[in-house]
Write a structure and sequence with these properties.
Strand content: 5-15%
Distance between the termini: 65 Å
Radius of gyration: 40 Å
Structural class: alpha+beta
Shape: rod-shaped
Helix content: 55-70%
Mean pLDDT: 83
Number of helices: 4
Length: about 190
């Protein structure tokens, strides 16, 4: 009977009509009473009272069944939503674990270790940040040690963010302080 309320009502009605029909046939003597306990010899009012009780039980069973179905469907919906939330949190936890692993990999090889960006040969990761990774590198011509910041690929698509980063790098290159990193150049490798 699943999700069709109309079908459930039809089956409940059929059960009531069938039971009432059997009672009418047996009370008029057309058919022998097929029940475990027969109503033979009972006054008519008691037979009809019994009939009303039986019909009430059939309708009550229908109502309880529909309420149970609704509660079950609601519970399944909530469980599915909870499973989606668990899956979402598992993805977030996996991402967090990956970030922790990358952070713990400072001093180790990164995605761009051994790559050359412009005049700089990247060696190993020395830091991670929200915008990218910082590599220990060497200048190709002078072998001078430098640090190269490589921005995450997905951030390169954000023109506003990239523009802000390049403006900050340009501003930092004009500062002359032992507390600010000297910016030698900016560009895309």
């Amino acid at each position: 009977m699943g999700c069709s309320r109309t079908l459930a009502i039809v089956f409940c009605s059929l059960a009531c009509i069938t039971q009432a029909g059997i009672e009418v046939l047996s009370s008029t003597g057309i058919m022998a009473d097929p029940g475990i306990m027969t109503a033979e010899g009972l006054p008519t009012i008691e037979r009809y009272t019994g009939q009303i009780l039986v019909q009430s039980f059939i309708v009550a069973a229908y109502i309880v069944g529909r309420l149970a179905r609704r509660a079950t469907v609601d519970a399944v919906d909530k469980m599915q939503e909870a499973l989606r939330e668990v899956a979402r949190r598992e993805v977030l936890a996996r991402e967090a674990r990956d970030k922790i692993r990358r952070a713990l990999n400072i001093g180790g090889a990164g995605r761009y270790s051994s790559a050359t960006f412009g005049k700089y040969k990247l060696v190993e990761v020395i830091g991670h940040g929200g915008m990218g990774e910082v590599y220990r590198a060497t200048h190709d011509e002078t072998s001078a040690p430098v640090a190269v910041k490589v921005i995450h690929n997905h951030l390169l698509q954000d023109g506003e963010l990239l523009g802000r980063f390049l403006r900050e790098a340009k501003l930092s290159s004009t500062a002359n302080s032992p507390h600010i990193v000297n910016v030698l150049e900016t560009g895309q490798g």
